[in-house]
């Protein structure tokens, strides 16, 4: 099998050869056009070099506060540690912060004093309200509000539409969609004060639904449209709304733990056996 990198090199060489051949032809047939095309080509190459060699700017995290949901594991856990290492004041929202969850314990043990864990169940209005108050009380000195809110908390229920219960559909929507809406609405005043940004973790499943992921695809599609509407509304306030659409990171996010996945396979086999018996 031909390696993709090898194909890229071959295609680049073929493209460069074609361009040089065209320039050589133009130099004999149309000198003015030759100089024009050569100038455009050299300018484009120079522009690309400047972009590549120019020093990359990095946001200074000093005095900037970020609230992240779903930090018990996966993306949220990793992002909380990363932003803490960059100097941000991190509020790591964990479902099990007050219940001895391993994720919140590790964050408190491995990160600086700038990071604090916050108990939050995104389906609970009372816990969301309490989280907002905790953030207000612990904002860094000189900060007017939140630099960023990252809606990362999410769950899924795999299975074919016929076999997934309505209760499971409601639960996934309540966490993935209404949880995002609930937390965003609660924190928007703090975001507006700082002219910050809302980052919603969606999924490619919100754009391209796949079999066995009907609940998740439906919930994430709603997040996509909610984010787009919010972006228009927040433009006048200088607030940015960003959608992140990961693809195949189920194991990295702990959405499919081995025990959970194995149980799912067993249930599917029982379902197929029941159908065959009918």
UniProtKB/TrEMBL annotation:
Q: Which Pfam families match?
A: adh_short
Residue ranges of the TM segments: 6-26, 33-54
Please give the superkingdom of this protein's source.
Answer: Eukaryota
Statement: the UniProt record of this protein carries the keyword Membrane: yes
> Keywords of this protein's UniProt record, alphabetized?
Membrane, Oxidoreductase, Transmembrane, Transmembrane helix
Q: Please provide the Gene Ontology terms (biological process) for this protein.
A: steroid metabolic process
Instruction: Give the molecular function GO annotations.
Output: oxidoreductase activity
Q: Which family does it belong to?
A: Belongs to the short-chain dehydrogenases/reductases (SDR) family.
Q: What is this protein called?
A: D-beta-hydroxybutyrate dehydrogenase, mitochondrial-like
Organism (species): Branchiostoma belcheri
């Amino acid at each position: 099998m031909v390696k993709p990198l090898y194909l890229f090199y071959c295609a680049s060489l073929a493209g460069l050869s074609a361009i040089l051949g065209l320039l050589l032809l133009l130099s004999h047939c149309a000198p003015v056009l030759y100089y024009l095309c050569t100038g455009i080509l050299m300018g484009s190459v120079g522009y690309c070099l400047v972009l590549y060699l120019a020093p990359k700017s990095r946001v200074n995290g000093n005095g900037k506060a970020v609230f992240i949901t779903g930090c018990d594991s996966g993306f949220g856990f990793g992002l909380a540690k990363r932003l803490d290492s960059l100097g941000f004041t991190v509020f790591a929202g964990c479902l099990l912060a007050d219940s001895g969850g391993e994720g919140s314990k590790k964050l408190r043990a491995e990160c600086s004093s700038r990071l604090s864990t916050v108990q939050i169940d995104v389906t609970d209005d009372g816990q969301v309200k309490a989280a907002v108050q905790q953030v207000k009380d612990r904002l860094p000195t000189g900060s007017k509000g939140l630099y960023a809110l990252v809606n990362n908390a999410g769950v899924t229920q795999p299975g074919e539409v016929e076999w997934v219960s309505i209760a499971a559909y409601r639960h996934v929507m309540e966490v993935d969609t209404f949880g995002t809406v609930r937390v965003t609405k609660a924190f928007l005043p703090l975001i507006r004060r700082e002219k910050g940004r809302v980052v919603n973790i969606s999924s490619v499943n919100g754009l391209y639904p796949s079999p066995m992921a009907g609940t998740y695809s439906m919930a994430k599609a709603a997040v996509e449209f909610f984010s787009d509407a919010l972006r228009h509304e927040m433009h006048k306030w200088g607030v940015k709304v960003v959608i992140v659409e990961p693809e195949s990171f189920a194991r990295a996010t702990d959405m499919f733990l081995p025990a959970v996945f194995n149980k799912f396979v067993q249930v599917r086999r029982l379902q197929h056996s029941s159908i065959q018996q009918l």
